Amino acid sequence: MARIPAAVAAVRQAVRRSIPRDGLVLVACSGGADSLALASAARFVGSQVGLVTVDHGLQEGSAGRASDVASWAVAAGFAPVEVATVSVAGLPGGPEAAARTARYEALSAVASRVAAVAVLLGHTRDDQAETVLLALARGAGPRGLAGMPFRKGIFLRPLLGVARADTRKACAAQGIVPWDDPHNVDPAFARSRVRGAALPALVEALGPAVVANLARSAGQIAADNAALDAIAADARQSAYGEQGLEVSVLSGLPDAIRTRVLHAWAKELGASGAALSHRHVEALDALVSDWHGQGPVHLPGAIRVARVRGQLVRVP
Length: 316
Fold this sequence. Notes:
The protein folds into two domains: about 5-215, HUPs (Rossmann fold, 3-Layer(aba) Sandwich); about 240-315, 2-Layer Sandwich (Uridine Diphospho-n-acetylenolpyruvylglucosamine Reductase, domain 3), CATH 3.30.465. It has twelve helices and ten strands. It has helices at about 5-20, 35-45, 60-75, 95-115, 125-140, 140-145, 165-175, 190-205, 210-240, 245-250, 255-270, 280-290; strands at about 25-30, 50-55, 80-85, 120, 150, 155, 245, 295-300, 305-310, 310-315. The longest helix is centred in the C-terminal third of the chain and has 31 residues, at about 210-240. The radius of gyration is 22 Å and the shape is elongated. This is tRNA(Ile)-lysidine synthase.
């Protein structure tokens, strides 16, 4: 019996550890090496596996490439196979953010329609390392440094512990020819610059282990975040007053817990998590820790919060 190539085995093992045992699973597949290796492994180890490819309409020939991915999936035995065509027009953020928003909305819609229990995404260990570097550059704090979660709602990322090189090797070993997205090497995009220049420079300076170490750090920070968030959730309940949050309770909390309480409370008031920044939370925190009679804090969504008679309250 022929021995399974190491890269193929690594991808299959990662998927086998992650894939739900019961119910339909969808693979989000762009036609790149990462998602094709993921799809092939999911089809091998899963019992009910379908595939969705999203056509963003941002590149010439994108419809044809989506059709090619769908044809490959049908021939490989995936069911159902869907092509989701989306438009990024009018969506907030730059091209990357708009495409991501449209893509996740489309994947969620397909998953809901076909009653899928999970959608598998092909992000690798290298993607995670890039995400951490981008977060460092933005000063994103612990939430950003935690990188991409393994699980978020219906979405799973089985390959966060698998090197990008192994997905390419897995495709080659199985005779699968991936498509290389030119956006991945376009220096107009920050992630492309990290991928093509910043991370290779770190690898050259510090050794190849830097990629795995960055990704591992993200997992450790995510675990710490989860613990601190749980403590903050209890603290928020204790801080509720008649109309808002009691300053006397907030002021006695450690900084890391208090800012988490304020962040979660701002979202509870209706502030969008995507628009809520550290500056908003710092301004809220100043109402507690640096109070000198300042006026209301303006949060995303036309929300205003003021300190009134010892409480942080929403005001008109």
